């Protein structure tokens, strides 16, 4: 039982804090923990959400979805109706508790690619290419090799301890047991010409792999950022203060000769409003949907937008909140052969109770781990002529004077990636349960709402060209930001994703995977395989949020449409930085939390270097 009082506001307004970190989520707690390693530096973390460090809905890895929609854990945002997706609103759930989204996410640990990271550097960010960034992928983690049983099951999974991080805070481990689909996954891709990938932490190659998760292999608990970085030793530091239920409303800004300085952070807790003075810096870590909101509420953003909401413009930067990127995920769910398992079996209360009993006894059983596998794949069936057409359409967009400058630069990098036929264009994910994108309520979409036992093959575009935005809809922090995610709004994304979905059907029809599925069984996406045009329609109908929102305060040169520089400082300010997923100039090739952890670790070193 962790006892950690984060409720008190006593003496806050008269205390001195060198750094005030806004958001005690994935990135915020990394930076808080690293900066407070120096006892002479006083750090305050203001987290709008709860302190639920002892709650099983966070700590039990396989209970992830149970926290959805509960305001004690989840902001439960939705996007605006997406015209290009037949007017659907997408889910935009986000962690609202210590640990942020890492406390409620699916736990998959997936690494970015060399080429994707090098594109960050090429976009004008020295030090952020693969060589400068990859040490931080190892710094955040303590990796444990797969169990003997897994090795017997899979053979060599390409894991090498010397490639991994071995003394970082976040526990990264593999499941204890795997259902039969995982071995078949590896073999089926091989049958299709794509053998096992190189260890993905090295950032290269294509093919299938068994991915680890952020789970402590000894306690079988989730290793989210609060569990990993707010250790007993860190929590006891007299120079670190964490306050939960503290909703930051705005920063008070003053214009100085060197630029704009944040002097005060204003937040509310319950009915009270508090003002805390900034010693050195404000570090924004409120996530890609709320960091831009806080900047705009403080007067940093598009002047016209701010004026519409009665906010005085202090720094006019129209790129704040633009450039939103999100992968989107399309699940194809297949009924499994009679007698084979699936996580859908947990709908039976006796099965669920047995799993809980086993977990409570010694952490064993299916609740104690998260079982996924993945593959990075090029677009196999894309004829060269179509590839050329796609590249040409990107080039036309780059030349279009209406395309924002930041996007032009990013598209140049993305066109280069698409020109390489063997470069990853999608991530495939094997999930051991059904997904129901036609259901609007999250628990029904992610739960076993359809009778029968299923597994899902999901496809995710690695480097989507589509862009969205997030902006304030009012001048109040209490109101949800307006999230216009833009998924599949670029026709190239739609065609690429449709082609990958068709390939998911091919995986399902290839041995040995095919024999694990029920002959003539139910397919939740569509009963029969479909042609390209129908696959595009299905994409619009089925694409779900993958919750990988990023890019809304992009790190790029100011003249190219950036919001922060490569030391993560907001342009025009002397003491405001951003350290969360907002700063990604380009989304990485797969799930993004490993990149978020690594960005925050690198940010902490940058900030320390500037003290
Ligand atoms: C449901 C879900 C599933 C996911 N699954 C995976 C996965 O399996 N693998 C993977 O790699 N990635 C996954 N992700 C993505 C990943 O978890 C996030 O990209 C990452 O955690 C974001 O980190 P962050 O620091 O940018 O923001 P967050 O972790 O969201 O932290 C932001 C924090 O700021 C707080 N905050 C916001 N506004 C304010 C304010 N005004 N005042 C004070 N505090 C504020 C929030 O409450 C939150 O705690 C998933 C995300 C979600 C939501």
Automatic annotation (TrEMBL):
FAD binds at residues 26-27, 248. The keyword Cytoplasm applies. It comes from the Eukaryota. Its cofactor is FAD. It is found in: Cytoplasm; Secreted, Cell wall. GO terms for cellular component: cytoplasm. Keywords: Cell wall, Cytoplasm, FAD, Flavoprotein, Secreted. GO terms for molecular function: flavin adenine dinucleotide binding; oxidoreductase activity, acting on CH-OH group of donors. Its main location: cytoplasm. Residues 287-301 form the Glucose-methanol-choline oxidoreductase N-terminal domain. Belongs to the GMC oxidoreductase family. This is CAZyme family AA3.
């Amino acid at each position: 039982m962790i006892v950690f009082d984060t409720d008190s506001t006593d003496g806050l307004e008269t205390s001195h804090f060198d750094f005030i970190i806004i958001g005690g989520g994935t990135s915020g707690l990394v930076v808080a923990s690293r900066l407070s390693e120096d006892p002479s530096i006083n750090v305050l973390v203001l987290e709008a959400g709860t302190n639920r460090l002892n709650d099983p809905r966070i700590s039990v890895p396989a209970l992830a979805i149970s926290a959805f929609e509960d305001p004690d854990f989840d902001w439960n945002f939705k996007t605006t109706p997406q015209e290009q997706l037949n007017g659907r609103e997408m889910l935009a759930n986000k962690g609202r508790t210590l640990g942020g989204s890492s406390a409620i996410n699916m736990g998959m640990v997936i690494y970015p690619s060399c080429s994707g990271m090098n594109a960050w550097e090429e976009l004008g960010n020295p030090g952020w290419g693969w060589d400068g960034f990859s040490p931080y992928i190892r710094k955040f983690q303590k990796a444990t090799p797969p169990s003997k049983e897994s090795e017997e099951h899979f053979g060599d999974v390409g894991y090498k301890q010397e490639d991994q991080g071995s003394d970082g805070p976040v526990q990264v481990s593999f499941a204890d047991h795997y259902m039969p689909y995982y071995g078949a996954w590896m073999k089926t891709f091989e049958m299709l010409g794509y053998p096992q990938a190189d260890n993905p932490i090295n950032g290269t190659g294509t093919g299938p792999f068994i991915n680890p998760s952020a789970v402590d292999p000894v306690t079988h608990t989730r290793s989210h950022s609060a569990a990993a970085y707010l250790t007993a030793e860190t929590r006891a530091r007299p120079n670190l203060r964490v306050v939960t239920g503290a909703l930051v409303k705005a920063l008070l800004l003053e214009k100085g000769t060197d630029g704009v300085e944040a002097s005060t952070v204003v937040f509310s807790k319950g009915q009270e409003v508090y003002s805390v003075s900034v010693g050195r810096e404000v570090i924004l870590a409120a996530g890609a949907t709320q960091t831009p909101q806080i900047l705009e509420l403080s007067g940093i953003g598009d002047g016209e937008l701010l004026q519409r909401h009665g906010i005085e413009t202090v720094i006019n930067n129209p790129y704040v909140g633009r450039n939103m990127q999100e992968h989107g995920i399309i699940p194809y769910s297949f009924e499994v052969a009679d007698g084979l398992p699936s996580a859908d079996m947990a709908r039976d209360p006796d099965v669920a109770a047995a799993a809980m009993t086993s977990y409570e006894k010694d952490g064993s059983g299916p609740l104690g781990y998260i079982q996924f596998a993945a593959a990075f794949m090029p677009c196999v069936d894309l004829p060269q002529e179509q590839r050329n057409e796609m590249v040409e359409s990107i080039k036309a967009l780059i030349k279009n004077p209406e395309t924002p400058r930041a996007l032009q630069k990013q598209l140049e990098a993305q066109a280069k990636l698409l020109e390489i036929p063997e470069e990853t264009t999608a991530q495939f994910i094997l999930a051991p349960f059904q997904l129901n994108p036609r259901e609007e309520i999250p628990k029904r979409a992610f739960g076993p709402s359809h009778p029968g036992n299923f597994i899902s093959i999901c496809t995710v575009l690695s480097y989507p060209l589509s862009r969205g935005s997030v902006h304030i809809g009012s001048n109040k922090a209490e109101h949800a930001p307006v999230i216009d995610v833009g998924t599949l709004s670029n026709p190239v994304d739609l065609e690429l994703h449709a082609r990958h979905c068709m390939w998911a059907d091919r995986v399902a029809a290839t041995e040995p995977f095919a024999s694990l599925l029920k002959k003539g069984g139910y397919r939740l996406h569509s009963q029969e395989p479909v042609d390209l045009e129908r696959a595009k329609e299905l994409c619009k109908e089925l694409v779900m949020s993958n919750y990988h929102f990023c890019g809304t305060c992009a790190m790029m040169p100011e003249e190219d449409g950036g919001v922060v520089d490569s030391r993560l400082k907001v342009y025009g300010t002397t003491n405001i930085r951003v350290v969360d997923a907002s700063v990604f100039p380009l989304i990485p090739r797969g799930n993004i939390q490993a990149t978020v952890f690594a960005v925050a670790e690198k940010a902490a070193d940058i900030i320390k270097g500037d003290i």
